[in-house]
Amino acid sequence: MITTLWAGLSIGAVYALVAIAYNIVFVGTRVFNFAQAYILMIGTFIAVEAATRFNLPLIVAIVVCAAAGALIGAVEEIVAVRRLARTGSHNELVTTLGIGVILSGIALLVWGSEPRSVPYLKEFGVLEVLGGRITMGELLLIVVALVAGVGAWVLSTRTSIGLTALATSEDRDAAMLRGINVRWLATGAFTLAGALVGAVAPLVATKTYATYHLGEGLAVKAFLVLALGGFGSFLGALLAGSIVGVLEMFAARYLGSEWQNITVFVLLLIVLLVLPHGLFSRGKAQERVV
Amino acid sequence: MVSKIWGPALALTTAAALVLTGCAPGDTDGGDGGDPAGTFTIYASLSLTGPLAGSSKAQQEGLEIAVDSINADGGINGEQVELIVADDQLDPTKAVTLLQEQLDKAQPDLVIHGVSSAVSLAMLPLLTRSEVLSIGNTYANAINDPATFPYAFGTNPVVALDPEAAAELFADEGYEKVAYLGANDALGQSIAEAFGEVLPDAGFDLTQESYAPTDLDMTAQLQRLQASNPDVLVIQGYGTAAGYALESRTKLGWDIVTYGDGGLGNGNNLALISSEDDWNNLFLRVFAINTTEREVTGTAAFEFLTSELTKRGSSFDQLMQLYAHQWDAVHVVKQAVEQADAKDAPSVAEALVNLEPLSGESPYITFPEFRSYTTDNHFRNLSTDAYIVVRPGPVVEGTIESIE
Questions:
Q1: Which chain B residues touch A207 with a CB distance below 8 Å?
Q2: Where are the extended beta strands (E) located within B224-370?
Q3: Do the Cβ atoms of A117 and B273 come within 8 Å?
Q4: What pLDDT, in 10s, does the model give residues B346-368?
Q5: Domains of chain B by range and CATH?
Q6: Which domain holds residue A110?
Q7: A44 lies in a domain?
Q8: What residues of A are in contact with residue B274 (Cβ under 8 Å)?
Q9: Does B251 touch chain A (CB under 8 A)?
C-alpha cells in the first residue's frame, strides 16, 4: 500500500507542479496558460540533450532547462498574450493553446516521435522508504512539488512582489494607477512559470521520458487539479495534485484501471458541487485564496 | 456606401476564386492527374507526422526501395510502378479524405491502407466499394474479414497466433497461472481478447489488467496482477507506455519471468523506453527478421534492401520488419498480378488466395517461406514457430542486439 501511495504522490507531484505554474501565470495576469505543460515537455528534451550530448550534471541541466523555460515563457507572453490583454475576449486561451501545439510540433520536428530517456538518478536504483518502494526521481519530485507549492504561497502572500501580483490580478486598472508596471509583471509571471516547469523537467523526464506528446496528457490533468484546488491557490494545487495522483493509483490498485479516471472525475464533480471554486475557495465569488 | 458594395464584392470574388481553384486538378506528392497506360500505381497512406512517424518513415523507405527494385527489373507485369505517398497524420478521417481525393483523380492499382488499425478500418469500406486492392501491416481482427473486405490483405499473421505461440511456450515451461498487462486502445483490446480466449482454452489460469496509453505509471495494475500470484507475466505495449510498464515492474522489485507480447519486441526499441535494469528476467517473443537469427542474411532481396537503406542515408533506427513488411507487400502483389496476368482487384485477390510457389530464391524478407493467403484468411498463414524468444537489447541497424 505504501508503494501505491508513493506512486500516487509522485504522479500527483507532476500534476501539481504544472498546476502551480498555471497559477503563477493566472495570479499575475488572469490568463490561463495552456502551454505550460508543453514548455515542460520541451524542457524534458533539453534535459535529454544536456545529459546525452553534453554530459552535463543534473544540477547544470536544471539551470539550463530553467533558463530555456523562462525564455519560452517570456516570448510566449510577448507574442501570444500581450496584444490580447484587456480585450476581454479571452482569446488568450486559444493563443496559448496554439503555442502549445506549436511547441509540440517543434519537438516532433527536432527530436522525432521516439521517446527519449535521461540517465539522471539511475544510479540510485529503487529506494525503500517507510515500507514502500520509490525511485529517487519520484522522491525528489514530491519534495520539489512541496517546496514549489509552499514557496509560491509564501512568495505571493509574504513578499511585496507577490502582493503586487495579487493586487494586479484583482484590479489591473487600480494597480496601473498605483504605478505598477503591469506589463512587466505579466512578462515576469510567464517567465517565472516557464522557469519553474523548465527546472523540474529533468526530474519529470526521469519518470515520463521525453516524448513530444507529453504535454497533452499533463495539460488536461493539471487543469483538473487546478479546478479542484481552486484557481489561483498554490496550496490548493499542491493538495489537489496529491489527491488526484493518489486517488488514481488507489482506484487502479483496488478497483481496477478502468476506475482510474472515473473516480477522479466523480471527485471533481462532488467537490465543485459543494465548493464551486475549488477546495481552497472562500465559497463566494472570489476565484482564489492564496 | 462604397464599402458596403466593395466589401461583399471582394468576398464573393475571393470565394469564387477559391472554389475554382478547388475544382482545378490538384498537385499531390507524385500524382500526375491521371493513370497513364503502362503504369502500376501504388498509393500509400502513411502517418509521416504523429506518434508513428518513425515507423512510417521506415515503411516508406522499404516501399520506395521495393518499387525501385521492381522497376529496375521491368516493373509489374511489364508496367513501371509509380508510388504516391500521402501523410494521413494518423487521422482516420484525413486518411479517408485523401484517399477519396486520389480516387477522384485516378484509381490506384494498389493501396497501402495505413499504419494503424484505426486508419485501415476507416479506409477499407471506401476501398471495397471502389474495388481497389489494398494491403498493409495493420492487424486488428476486424481487418481480416474477407467477406466484408474481399480486397484487403495483411502482411502480419492473425492476432491469435501470438497467444497460441505463448501458450505453447508456457506449457513447455510448466507455467499454470499467467498474468497479462496490456493497453486498452483498439489494438491492445484486440490482443487482450485473443489472449483471453486462447490461454484459458489451453488450460491456463489467466488474470488480465489494462492501462490507458496515456498512463504514466502502471504500479497499481502490476500490484493487482502480483496479488494473483502468477507464474509468468505478459506485457503488451508500444511506445512510452510499454516503458512505464517495465519501469513499474522494476520499481516493485517483481522479478517474475516476463515475456513481451509479439508487439513489445517487434515494435519497440527497448533501449529508448527502458534500461538494462528493467530487463531482468525479461524475454521478448519476436520474429527472426528482427534478430541476428534471421535466415535471410545473404539473400539477394535482403542484401539489396539493407544496402539501399545504407546508400540512402537511412537512420535505420527502426526494427527490420518495418522496412521489410512493405517490401514484401509490394512483391507479393507483384507475384499475384503476374500470376493472374491482370491488375484488377478481383483477379489479383483471387490470385493471392491461390498463390503458386515461386521458383528460385524467395523475394520475400520478413517470412521468406511464403505461403498463400486463403479465402477465409487474408493475413499471413504462419505457424507458432514464427516467434522466437530472445533477450532484450538495443536495436542497432534494425536488429535487436540481445544482452547476455
A1: 216-217
A2: 232-235, 258-260, 282-287
A3: yes
A4: 999 999 999 998 888 899 999 88
A5: 38-154+296-367 (3.40.50.2300), 161-293+387-400 (3.40.50.2300)
A6: 2-219
A7: yes
A8: 117
A9: yes
